[in-house]
Amino acid sequence: MKVSMRDKKILLMFIGILVFFVGWYFGYRPQMEKADQIEDLNGALEEQLQDLLELAENKDFYVSETASIKDKISEYISEFPADVRPEDGIVLANKMENELGFQITNVGVGEKEFVASLDGSSEEDLAQSQDQTMSEQANAQTQEQIDNIEGTDSQAEENLQNASDAAVADQSSDSQVPVLYRTQVTLQFNGTYAGLKKAVLYVADQSGRMTLDNVNASYDTSTGNLTGTIIVNIFSMTGTDRTYTEPDAGSVAYGTANIFGTVEQNAPAEASDQNTDTQNTDAQNADAQSTEAQADTAETEAQPAQ
């Protein structure tokens, strides 16, 4: 079977087209796709590089601003007490009575409520972190750590101790996250309108972190004063280096020698002293009366002789 020259040319042309297509499909096209992907990655990397170069140029500014912000945060955190307890509300009410003459009839201290965390954690996240025990943290090991522990006995004990120390360090670092809490103190009062305004200003002038949440007052026709409640928010922050400091209540008089308030008789010694003083007084009065009688008798005897 002979193939004509024309058929050979057509066959060669077809083979060339097939080779070109196979080379383009399996060689050129994948390389072009990779080139496009690399170009896209280069574009993102170039943008990141520009950002890093800009940050590097302004390094001193960012370092100084970061240090300044940290100082401001530390100063802000230092103004919050470590905890708020019932005695804080009682001392606040006592000071308002002593300094303002504002009568506080009752003091109620509420439960500590979660407000916010510095790292953005929610109350549920903090509760889960606190509920997690040390053993659970120590047992949360990776496969590589488990493989290392499965070596010799001494090595296993050392690895377990290191894992426990790491868990303790993690827990201590988590506990250092500052968390803001709020405690509401309810003060029932009885006083004048001027006293109520002084009480509001007194709360505003306190050095502790507290705010006035609500004031409810009504006129008492029997006394002519105002009666009602004042709700004060006292804020505290845990996870800081500060510790709780008991409030200074000053000198408070307490106790009594007579719990019934009855009138007691004088002591025997005091009674004998009083009897002695009475006898001396009676003797002086008797001497004075005798002297006056003698003088009257002498005057009477002298009158007839004249």
UniProtKB/TrEMBL annotation:
This is Pilus assembly protein PilO. Residues 286-306 have a biased composition (Low complexity). Keywords: Membrane, Transmembrane, Transmembrane helix. Residues 121-143, 266-306 are annotated as: Disordered. The chain crosses the membrane at residues 10-28. The lineage of its organism: Bacteria, Bacillati, Bacillota, Clostridia, Lachnospirales. Residues 127-143, 272-284 have a biased composition (Polar residues).
